[in-house]
Structures are given as C-alpha cells and as structure tokens.
Amino acid sequence: MLFASLLGTVLCLLVYFRLLTEFKLSSNAKWLSLVFLILPARWLAVRVVGSPEPWFIFFILTSIFYFKKEKYWLAGIFGALAQLTKSPAVLLLGAYGLVFLVDWFKSKRINLKMWPVLLQAAAIPLLFWFYGMRTGDFWAYFHSGDNIHLFWPPFSVFTSLGENWVGSFWLEDVIWTWLIFGMGILKLRDKKLTVEYYFAGLYFLSTLFVAHRDISRYILPIAPLVLIGWDEVLQKKEAKIILGILAIPVILFTWNFLLNNYAP
C-alpha cells in the first residue's frame, strides 16, 4: 500500500515537471516542482499513506499533457484511468467538452479528432458494471453509505454543523483555501491555459457545494495547476524565504495529522 502511494507520487512529480518544461509553464520548473512537494500541506499528508490521490493526480496531469499535444487517444486512456480511480475525474471530461464546444463556436467546424477522449465516459458504466458483478448492485457506489457530500445551496459547509464530517465552526481556513485557489485559477485564464483553466474552474466550483470539513483534500487534485497560476509569485525571493521556513511546520502538520487521523 505504501509502495503504491510512493510510486504514484514519483510518477506524479515526473509528469508535472515534464508538463512544466515541455509547455514552458514555469520560469523555473525545478523550483515549482519542489514547491509541489510541500504545498499544499494536505498533499504531503495524503501521499505518505495509502490514498488514491497520487495516482489520481498523475492520471489527470498525464491526460492533460497528451490533450495539449493533441494525442487524444492517450488523453482518453489516461482520462479513463483517472475516472476508474476517483469519480470527480468526470470534471476533466467536462473540461474537454468545453474546449470542444468553444472550438466549434469559434471555427464553425467540428473537431472529430477529439472523440477518443470519450473513452473516459465509457469507463463509468464499465466501473459500475464491475461494482454490480462484485456486490450484486449496479448502483453500489450511491448505496455505499455516507460518501457523497455535495449539497445545495453552495457554501453549505457553513450551515451544516450537525452533519457528519463537518461538526465544527472553526472553518476560516476553508475561505482562505477558496481565495488562494480561486485567484490561482483566474491567473490560469490570464495565461491563456485553456484546458487547465476549464478543468480547475469546474473542480473549484464543485467544491463550493461540498459540506465537509476536509475541503483541502477535496480540492487537492487541482493544486498543481493552481501553483502554475501563482508561478510568478512563487519564483520571487520573498516566496522562497517564506517557503523555506514553512517547510518545517508542513512536516510537523503532517506528523501531527497522521498521529491523530486514523481509522478505528
């Protein structure tokens, strides 16, 4: 289990570095990749235990990488693997759909070359079929208990103190998370990083409907893209000094988190 998380982390960082260098998304790709080792702090906590996030983020970044290179078969295959890893990957397919629609409206032509990304859509019924084979219930994902925390209206996390997985009014950090991530996403738009902006934007909007204390984990898959948005700031000398200091509390946070957040 730990080896799987470690391997997924290594692959994730390698594809992130390649994405940064191949498309010149950072003025110093090595430094931004190092920043991604410790930011967000929640990322360090989830990748040193058994969790799907390292592989999920690896598949998403790889799918985006090949989509930008117009290798749509590979984008679809890795998108399907992301879909088999965690259900929110459907938002990646939504981002590809937005790219297709905007291109269609602008050029008045249908780009049929993109159709292999629909492999990701095919992964959904296949996964549910697998659940049905193993449990006898095709809709087992929706009947598996308290695992879906999307609520209407948005910002319900602040009005659901009686709900499981909220239960606290100490939630100011959630606002800071949304502020930092939201501004980073708008910076992606300014950089004309279309697919990254669409995916991160859709993912960000979905977290506004999450009534769960752990927003920092829910929003984690778009963190590497948000770091790209903040690249100019993170490359400054002042940021490097502060990040050097913050590396210590990030490790202490992770240590404390693992000691106190474990399964019964």
**How much beta, percentage-wise?**
under 5%
How many alpha or pi helices? 13
Order of helices and strands: HHHHHHHHHHHHH
Enumerate the spans where pLDDT stays under 50 for 5 or more consecutive residues: none
Number of strands: 0
Structural class: mainly alpha
Strand and helix layout:
Layout lengths: L1 H21 L6 H10 L2 H7 L5 H16 L3 H14 L4 H18 L11 H17 L36 H19 L3 H14 L7 H4 L4 H7 L1 H4 L2 H24 L4
Can you describe this structure?
By secondary structure, the chain is mainly α. Helix content is 66%, strand content 0%. It is built from 13 helices and no strands. The protein has helices spanning 2-22, 29-38, 41-47, 53-68, 72-85, 90-107, 119-135, 172-190, 194-207, 215-218, 223-229, 231-234, 237-260. The relative contact order is 0.13.
Comma- or semicolon-separated keywords:
mainly alpha
Task: State the gist of this model.
The chain is built from 13 helices and no strands.
